[in-house]
Design brief:
With 485 residues, the chain is an alpha/beta fold. Helix content is 43%, strand content 13%. Bound molecules: S-adenosylmethionine. One of its GO terms (biological process) is methylation.
């Protein structure tokens, strides 16, 4: 990892969550690197549950628990500097510690992400007590991963007393921003949303792993039936509630080593992202532009919905991200995708497509705050100034992308943010300046595909507490027929 590069491709301090949308960002191209998600190992939580159910504790010698606390402390020491996304820090650490086994990686990643999720509350706890605060954070993170008996073997008697004390404290009396561990500026914004408390709680709960079948190569029921009789059965795969292509599994299996993944029959993708492609509703033979294609998460489903016909441009300013999409495109069997690395403004290839596309998707670079279940560090890495910068970028991209839509064609603006300033307010400002576009009802478009999502108004607004997906927003706009390009 170069010291100047962040996951979102920006330099130095991250400005945006560029690719947060798919359960994986970094999650195929999962949301988070495999190692960081602990995918290579057993499911730590499931395994812990089994131990607990048997009334056993995992007998690890002192040296093992002490070493693990130190490992988590080291990773936290780097991650809490906020120079890089947490998953990049973990990947880097794992590369430097190649002897760390699969279970080690899973436990370290889980403890680190737990700390990032509850950082503000844990920091209050860590203030009480002596010694390294980062070590105490590591202990709190591991307390969510290990049985207490195991953890105690790595602690001295003062630490044990401290842990007894902080674990006995009730969070009920704490201010909401501390209780749910969010910065004040974010708490203020989220407070303006309906049911803020339940949203905050859901954003702090780790997400399940969502997969998507490739409709060109697989059929969901057949795949689920095959898995029910195979080694995959332990992951309790089941259909997602809304997406006709989605499969939800419990735990973190090494999906990218499964035959179905290698054959291009499945991808990792949050159900919300899948619904977004359904909303674009591309048809066979059309010309479609995925304007911010990134590593191709949505492009893949769009291409499959077009049955690999027509032309699907995958644009992005980041050639590196498009390069990461190429193996996914190859696995998928799609032959209608044309990846193009474009310039940020005034790109000649974009200009040549003025007024020509049936559908244009803008999956905008955004704060990614709808994906906090998977990327809890984003709430500490974003700030009001970075949001202001993002808003300008989003508005500029929307304007440029809109010019490519043909009269009678559709423009879909989407983000994996839950903040109105990146969503509804962007769309309203765009519509105010572009009277040739009008808003369509997202729920009705999904209903045409037999996807029934309860929505309040014309937008697709998904929330983890209501829909069980990451937080997503999308607006569908249609360009009036007969309007000049
Ligand atoms: C949210 S991510 C896209 C995720 C992707 N659609 C997926 O499903 O995997 C936003 C993307 O916008 C790209 N981007 C940023 N500025 C852009 C611009 N001016 N034009 C096109 N793409 C841009 C970023 O490089 C990033 O890959």
């Amino acid at each position: 990892m170069s010291r100047n590069d962040t996951r979102d491709g920006s330099r130095s301090r991250p400005r945006a969550r560029m690719d947060a949308a798919d359960g994986g960002r970094r999650s195929g191209s999962p949301d988070r690197p495999r190692a960081a998600r602990g995918e290579e190992g057993r499911d730590v939580r499931a395994s812990r549950g089994k131990d607990a159910a048997r009334g056993q504790t995992t007998a690890r010698p002192y040296v093992m628990a002490a070493a693990r606390i130190e490992q988590v402390r080291q990773v936290l020491g780097e991650a809490l500097q906020w120079k890089y996304p947490a998953d990049a820090v973990l990947s880097h650490w794992f590369r430097a510690h190649a002897n760390a086994g699969m279970r080690d990686r899973g436990e370290i990643a889980e403890a680190v992400f737990d700390v990032l999720r509850h950082l503000r509350r844990y920091r209050q706890f860590a203030e009480i007590g002596a010694g390294s605060g980062t070590r105490r954070l590591a202990v709190l993170g591991l307390a969510s991963v290990w049985p207490r008996e195991t953890l105690d073997t790595g602690l001295d008697e003062h630490e044990r007393a401290w842990l007894d004390h902080v674990l006995s404290l009730s969070a009920a009396g704490l201010p909401r921003a501390v209780r749910h561990s969010v910065p004040d500026w974010l708490d203020e914004r989220l407070a303006a949303l309906p049911d803020a408390e339940s949203l905050l709680q859901a954003l702090n709960t780790p997400a399940p792993l969502d997969l998507r079948i490739n409709p060109l190569k697989a059929e969901r029921d057949a795949l689920l039936a095959a898995w029910a009789d195979g080694p995959e059965a332990r992951w309790a795969a089941r259909p997602t509630p809304y997406s006709p292509w989605g499969i939800r599994i419990q735990g973190r299996p090494p999906v990218n080593r499964w035959g179905a993944f290698e054959r291009g029959e499945i991808e990792v993708q949050d159900e919300g992202s899948q619904l977004l492609a359904a909303l674009v509703a591309p048809r066979r033979g059309e010309m479609v532009i995925d304007y911010c294609a990134g590593a191709g998460g949505k492009t893949l489903l769009l291409g499959a919905l077009m049955r690999s016909t027509g032309r699907l441009y995958a644009f992005d300013v980041s050639a590196a991200r498009l390069a990461r999409a190429k193996p996914r495109f190859a696995r998928s069997g799609l032959s209608n995708i044309v990846p193009v690395a474009i310039a940020e403004r005034n790109d000649q290839r974009v200009k040549r497509l003025r007024g020509k596309a049936h559908r244009v998707l803008v999956d905008a670079p955004c704060s990614g705050l709808g994906t906090l279940r998977r990327n809890p560090d984003l709430k500490w890495r974003q700030h009001p100034e970075s949001l202001a910068q993002l808003r300008q970028t989003q508005a500029a991209i929307l304007r440029d992308a809109a010019a490519c839509v043909m009269p009678g064609g559709r423009l879909v603006y989407a983000s994996c943010s839950i903040l109105p300033e990146e969503n509804e307010l962007q769309v309203e400002a765009f519509l105010a300046g572009h009277p040739e576009f009008s808003l369509l009802d997202a729920g009705a478009i999904l209903a045409d595909r037999d996807i029934r999502v309860s929505l309040d108004g014309p937008y697709l607004r998904l929330r983890p507490d209501v829909h069980g997906t990451d937080g997503f927003f999308a607006a569908v706009m249609e360009r009036a027929k007969g309007t000049p390009e």
